[in-house]
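Title: Prediction job returns without error message
Component: structure pipeline
Severity: low
Priority: P3
Assignee: unassigned

Description:
Job completed but the reporter wants confirmation the result is attached to the right record. Sequence as submitted:
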Amino acid sequence: MFLFPEVYITVMGQIRDIMEKDIIVIENDKTAQDAAKIIAEKDISFLVIMNDGKPQGVLSESDFVRKVVAQDKKASEIKISEIMSYKFRSVGPTTTIEDAIQKMLNSRIRRLLILDNEKLVGVITQTDLVSHLRDRILIDETIKSIKKD
């Protein structure tokens, strides 16, 4: 149960029910410029970095700001492996939505990779979770309204 401005909602389901399955990835031997072009073209905030078919880390917009722009480095000369975050958090597709939210809150992170037997099968972000919670609130409020009538 989550308390959300005077409304109690139960977040049902598993991560696989709401995860994003269309994952944008890039190989770890590419440059920061290659990654920046993909992020700009796809209008996304991060990429999953792959190495031999397995996720190795993530590269976010904030990684670019802190590790390229702020240090006045040339993106075309920097390998992704030099600026990516190797520490990433993951859960399995059958993880409950509540457990995933708690993991994100405890770890103070904005995204989780979804791994099934070490294979990348999805991602979940704060935005995905907020959208899901909004939908649950709307459904719960509609049901309450119908019951009152």
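Comment from assignee: result matches the submitted record. The CA atoms of residues 77 and 120 lie 28 Å apart.
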